[in-house]
């Protein structure tokens, strides 16, 4: 074989839709765990015949020889180019090991119009896309590394006659621009990274193919075998979301994130290291995913994984104003929470190319529920329900044009609003109002009119980022106006309550706009005027996306503090620590 | 008029120790950003202690802003026994919504009582799973897990190897 051609093959990698550099920071190390029970199938008579000289890829880099070789650019497409990354030293006398990685994907099912959870009978071997894959030696040292392409294929070079195994990490990793570092780890084992190993077998003297399939562990009535596919199903759900993000922002840079999953992750709140995670959620630092069979498993619930990934994106590159907590699609929640949750549902549907959110659970995962992002299934609508927000956002995105929906813009315009400086650093809290206002500003009047029609369809009538003119009070008049106004030297009266009983109802907190013209020390105070046996008010003062101060010193029915404020716009957020229904008077005066 | 159909299933199973944390409902931006589900949650108790070879009744209270009926179905597994068995109706209109469980056990250990709730409100059906840890006898959570963890969790897979053509 021509050495130059062989060397070219060494440096050639299959193009990937998500091209990751080989320097993945997973720090592959020998695992102290016992050898896995891999069942390789090797063809008989392994007397390999030398392959014909391959046609060099037009993007192939020069022969790496003993020097670290740069990654080769992928085939021209929408895929971003990888940044060069040094590879471990590889001899020119090398062979190519290639193959395809698949995993068991379990779809959901509808029987006679009723959602029925997971459909194990129609499990499919889906490609594992964009995942880090390496050839490692007998002690776990990395010989070469790349990632699978959009069809689960990989190609790696290895020295001849060397015991090597393939190792697939539950990781999406890329350096440079764009960049991401997404890992699926086990929170019940010190957040160790999930991986799958092939057999340790000689690389031989000719090229070979090593395909790996990752099984679900389902044996017909239960998970009697290791649930190897779980982490990779989670990873693939994120891959889909990443594709949508890249189309909107090709040079996106995401901070690292772990999705923590275990078969012991159960719907009991307690010790996360024991699997007691309570529910699937994002805690501001990591995403936790349920996995306890016959109760609630979410590894095959793409909607759930992508919904939580959306919360991570709010924290990472959008803006997260939501106060979090329990919610349901029709609960009347704080508008920031409603927007955040509606966005999560819509984002998941967009990323997966479906028009619903679904979540399986219960015995054999044969139950659960599905929320339509297209069909309005509930009589509760407004700026305070995630159902309404999700449908609006999805209607902006989708191609379907039903009555009242004249928008088919795709995800990009939504992304442009969410990543805009106006939203991220604006004074208005993130809600459907601020989102809609910025979308109107970024797009044509025609689009603005169509957006207003979508809003009206969901009984949302506020005309600007502060919801001015909103008339839908959800049956609780005290929630309007959306923002109260306060002027130094004056006071404003308002009432709060907790209709949903969860502390994050649409009437649990009041927002007050305050404009300061002169820098001075201001006396801020909240006093109970009526109601509640022992409410304990607290005040948050915001300016744009910054928390200026949190006033919560007293255990009584009043709060006050002297704060130095510079000229500008501020938002007071008032709530009751005890979640009681009470009325208050807020005032600001120069001290 | 709202029509609410709610189904709860109790499932008993062995599990790990832990207390119950209430979702952060204050200003803290590091509160839980949860997945959607039925508008029902566990109000009390946070956990249950049970002496081995004993039987006790426990009132489990649920919190939901919705009114209607809740159906409970119990399952028991080896080591921990639960009554009532079968489907039990709980009137959510009562304040607070409560079901009384009778628990008994012969073996020390850690268990869970799980609730599977399905509620249909205004035509929208959602479900939620939540549970209570049950400690039978004295158990030491700290001794249950090794302190050293591997860097990777290696899972098994199926491999096919053949020469390239």
Short description:
The complex is a heterodimer of chains A (591) and B (165). Chain A is of the alpha+beta class and 591 residues long. Chain A has helices spanning 3-10, 229-248, 302-316, 335-352, 386-397, 412-418, 421-425, 432-442, 445-457; strands spanning 39-42, 94-105, 108-111, 114-118, 124-127, 132-136, 142-147, 153-159, 163-169, 171-174, 180-186, 192-197, 201-202, 208-214, 257-261, 281-282, 287-289, 291-292, 296-297, 356-361, 367-372, 483-486, 491-496, 509-516, 520-530, 537-543, 546-551, 558-565, 568-576, 582-590.
Describe the overall structure.
The complex is a heterodimer of chains A (591) and B (165). Chain A has 591 residues and is α+β, with helices and mostly antiparallel strands. Chain A is built from 9 helices and 30 strands. In chain A, the strands form 7 sheets. In chain A, strands 6, 7, 9, 10, 11, 12, 13, 15, 16 and 17 form a 10-stranded mixed beta sheet that branches. In chain A, strand 18 and strand 19 form a beta hairpin. Chain B is mostly beta strands and 165 residues long. Chain B is built from no helices and 13 strands. Chain B has strands at residues 5-14, 33-34, 41-44, 48-50, 54-63, 69-74, 80-83, 86-91, 97-105, 109-121, 124-136, 152-155, 158-163. In chain B, the strands form 2 sheets. In chain B, strands 4-11-10-1-6-8 form a 6-stranded mixed beta sheet, with no helix packed on it. Chain B has a 4-stranded antiparallel beta sheet with strand order 3-5-9-7, with no helix packed on it. Chains A and B meet through strand 1, strand 9, strand 12, strand 14 and strand 16 of A and strand 1, strand 2, strand 10, strand 11 and strand 12 of B.
Reconstruct the topology from this structure.
The complex is a heterodimer of chains A (591) and B (165).
Chain A: H1 3-10, E1 39-42, E2 94-105, E3 108-111, E4 114-118, E5 124-127, E6 132-136, E7 142-147, E8 153-159, E9 163-169, E10 171-174, E11 180-186, E12 192-197, E13 201-202, E14 208-214, H2 229-248, E15 257-261, E16 281-282, E17 287-289, E18 291-292, E19 296-297, H3 302-316, H4 335-352, E20 356-361, E21 367-372, H5 386-397, H6 412-418, H7 421-425, H8 432-442, H9 445-457, E22 483-486, E23 491-496, E24 509-516, E25 520-530, E26 537-543, E27 546-551, E28 558-565, E29 568-576, E30 582-590
Parallel strand pairs in A: 2-14, 11-15, 15-17, 22-24
Antiparallel strand pairs in A: 2-5, 2-8, 3-4, 6-7, 6-9, 9-12, 9-13, 10-11, 11-12, 16-17, 18-19, 20-21, 23-30, 24-29, 25-28, 25-30, 26-27, 26-29
Helix pairs in contact in A: 2-3, 2-4, 2-6, 3-4, 4-5, 6-8, 8-9
Chain B: E1 5-14, E2 33-34, E3 41-44, E4 48-50, E5 54-63, E6 69-74, E7 80-83, E8 86-91, E9 97-105, E10 109-121, E11 124-136, E12 152-155, E13 158-163
Parallel strand pairs in B: 1-6, 4-11
Antiparallel strand pairs in B: 1-10, 3-5, 5-9, 6-8, 7-9, 10-11
């Amino acid at each position: 074989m021509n050495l130059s051609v062989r060397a070219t093959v060494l440096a050639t990698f299959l193009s990937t839709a998500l091209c990751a550099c080989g320097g993945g920071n997973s720090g592959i190390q020998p695992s102290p765990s016992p050898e896995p029970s891999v069942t390789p199938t090797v063809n008989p008579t392994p007397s390999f015949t030398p392959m014909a000289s391959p046609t060099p890829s037009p993007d192939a880099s020069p022969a790496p020889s003993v020097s670290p070789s740069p990654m080769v650019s992928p085939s021209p497409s929408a895929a971003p180019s990888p940044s060069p990354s040094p590879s471990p030293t590889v001899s020119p006398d090398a062979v190519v090991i290639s193959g395809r990685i698949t995993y068991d994907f379990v779809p959901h099912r509808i029987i006679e119009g009723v959602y029925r959870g997971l459909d194990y009978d129609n499990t499919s071997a889906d490609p594992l896309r964009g995942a880090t894959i390496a050839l490692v030696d007998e002690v776990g040292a990395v010989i070469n590394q790349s990632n699978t392409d959009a069809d689960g294929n990989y190609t790696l070079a290895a020295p001849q006659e060397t015991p090597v195994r393939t190792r697939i990490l539950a990781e999406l990793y890329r350096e440079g621009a764009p960049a991401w570092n997404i890992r699926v780890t086990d929170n019940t084992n010190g957040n160790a990274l999930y991986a799958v190993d092939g057999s340790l077998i000689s690389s031989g003297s000719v090229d070979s193919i090593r395909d790996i399939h990752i099984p679900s562990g389902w044996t017909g009535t239960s998970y009697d075998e290791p649930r190897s596919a779980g982490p990779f199903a989670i990873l693939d759900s994120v891959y889909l979301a990443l594709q949508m993000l890249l189309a909107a922002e090709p040079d996106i840079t995401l901070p690292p994130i772990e999705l923590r999953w275990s078969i012991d992750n159960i719907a009991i709140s307690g010790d996360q290291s024991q699997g007691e995670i309570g529910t699937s959620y994002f805690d501001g630092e990591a995403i936790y995913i349920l996995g306890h069979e016959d109760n609630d498993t979410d590894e095959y619930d793409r909607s759930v994984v992508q919904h939580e990934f959306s919360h991570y994106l709010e924290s990472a590159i959008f803006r997260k104003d939501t106060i979090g907590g329990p919610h349901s699609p029709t609960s009347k929640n704080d508008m920031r929470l409603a927007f955040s949750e509606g966005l999560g549902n819509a984002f998941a549907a967009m990323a997966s190319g479906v028009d619903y959110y679904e979540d399986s659970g219960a015995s054999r995962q044969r139950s659960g529920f599905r929320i339509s992002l297209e069909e309005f299934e509930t009589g509760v609508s407004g700026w305070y329900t995630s159902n309404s927000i999700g449908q609006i956002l999805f209607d902006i995105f989708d191609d379907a044009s039903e009555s009242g929906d004249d928008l088919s813009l795709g995800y990009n315009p939504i992304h442009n609003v969410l990543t805009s400086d106006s939203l991220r650093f604006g004074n208005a809290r993130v809600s459907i109002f601020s989102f809609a206002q910025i979308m109107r500003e970024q797009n044509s009047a025609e689009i603005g009119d169509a957006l207003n029609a979508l809003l009206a369809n969901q009984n949302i009538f506020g005309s600007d980022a502060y919801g001015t003119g909103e008339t839908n009070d959800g049956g609780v008049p005290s929630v309007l106006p959306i923002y109260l106004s306060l002027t130094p030297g004056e006071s404003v009266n308002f009432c709060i309550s907790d209709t949903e009983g969860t502390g994050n109802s649409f009437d649990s907190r009041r927002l007050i706009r305050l404009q300061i013209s002169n820098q001075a020390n201001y006396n801020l105070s909240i006093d109970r005027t009526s109601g509640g046996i022992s409410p304990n008010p607290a005040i948050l003062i915001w300016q744009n996306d910054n928390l200026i101060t949190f006033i919560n010193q007293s255990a009584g029915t009043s709060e006050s503090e002297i704060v130095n404020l510079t000229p500008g716009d501020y938002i007071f957020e008032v709530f009751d620590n005890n979640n009681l229904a009470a009325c208050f008077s807020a005032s600001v005066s120069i001290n | 008029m709202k029509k609410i159909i709610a189904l709860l299933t109790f499932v008993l199973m062995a599990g790990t120790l832990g207390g119950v944390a209430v979702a952060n409902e204050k200003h803290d931006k590091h509160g839980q950003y949860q997945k959607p589900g039925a508008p029902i949650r566990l109000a009390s108790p946070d956990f249950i202690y049970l002496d081995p070879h004993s039987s006790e009744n426990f009132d489990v209270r649920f919190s939901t802003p919705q009114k209607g009926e809740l159906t409970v179905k119990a399952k028991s597994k080896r080591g921990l026994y639960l009554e009532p068995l079968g489907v039990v109706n709980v009137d959510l209109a009562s304040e607070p919504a409560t079901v009384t469980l009778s628990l008994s056990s012969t073996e020390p250990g850690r268990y869970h009582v799980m609730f599977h709730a399905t509620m249909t409100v205004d035509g929208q059906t959602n479900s939620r799973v939540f549970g209570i840890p049950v400690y039978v006898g004295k158990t030491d959570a700290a001794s249950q897990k090794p302190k050293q963890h591997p860097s990777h969790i290696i899972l098994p897979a199926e491999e096919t190897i053949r020469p390239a053509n």
